[in-house]
Amino acid sequence: MVFENLLILSVGESGMALDKGTGKTVWQSANKEAGYSTPLPWQHGGKWLALVSSGQAYLAVEPRTGKEQWRIRWLTQYNVNAADPIIDSDQVFISSGYGKGGALLKPDAGPEPKVLWKNKTLRTQRNAAVLVGSHLFGVDGDTNEKAALECVDIAAGQVKWSEPAVGSGALMAADGKLIVLGDRGELMVAPASPEGFQPTARAQVLGGKCWTVPVLANGLIWCRNSRGDVVCVDVRARPQ
């Protein structure tokens, strides 16, 4: 994560920062097990924070100094907290796989945020869910089990629908739509609706294991599988 003149990395218990011009270390956290999530910028309470994960917690630190603002203990099998947090106004959703589940947090002035709800309805092992309106859309379950794409009401933590055909694939959102790559290489585009998963377009674009988030850029969707095969799908509007 680039912040002002800093490059903030997920290294150590709560990250580290380098001067992006020189590479010099500006600050670094304790030499403990890091998490796998990408540092995420968040402007909250009139100041900037960086949300990071360690092997045992999710934390918020001041990006300029590394000073810890709050943390929530979050223990997961193998100490894997890989999915990026999701910001919803003044609240933060976190989630991990391996049977852990997710929680909606509301940080305040204390060293630990308030937990608004916590359950196992959405267990994101690797890739974060996406938030569209008031609903989370994400893959629930691990790669070694029957995972499924789910829609979850973020306010209540309740599942609205589940679609097993996606498996442990990945997704992104754009223009009110979900762009989903199933774990066996089927690309699907569907409205981001709590009423159900109803693709308006779908095509088998890859084979093998597909766990990487598809990327939309300038009307092109890029997809990759675990072998490194890459395919580019043109979804630009055709002239009439």
Quick overview of this protein structure:
The chain is mostly beta strands and 240 residues long.
How many helical elements? 0
Strand content of the residues, in percent? over 45%
Weakly predicted, low-confidence segments: none
Helical content band: under 10%
Task: Count the beta strands.
Answer: 23
The gross shape turns out to be globular
Give the N-to-C terminal Cα separation.
42 Å
**Radius of gyration from the CA trace?**
18 Å
- Give the structural class: mainly beta
Q: Biggest sheet, strands in spatial order? A: 1-2-3-4
Order of helices and strands: EEEEEEEEEEEEEEEEEEEEEEE
Mean pLDDT: 96
**Sheet with most strands:** 4 strands, antiparallel
Account of the 3D structure:
This protein is mainly beta and 240 residues long. Helices cover 0% and strands 47% of the residues. It is built from no helices and 23 strands. The chain has a four-stranded antiparallel sheet, with no helix packed on it. 38% of the residues are buried.
Please outline the helices and strands.
Layout: E1 2-3, E2 6-9, E3 16-19, E4 25-28, E5 40-44, E6 47-53, E7 57-61, E8 68-73, E9 86-88, E10 91-96, E11 101-106, E12 114-119, E13 130-132, E14 135-140, E15 148-153, E16 158-163, E17 170-174, E18 177-181, E19 186-191, E20 201-204, E21 215-217, E22 220-224, E23 230-234
Task: For the structure shown, list the relevant keywords.
single chain; 240 residues; mainly beta; four-stranded antiparallel beta sheet; 23 strands; 47% strand; globular
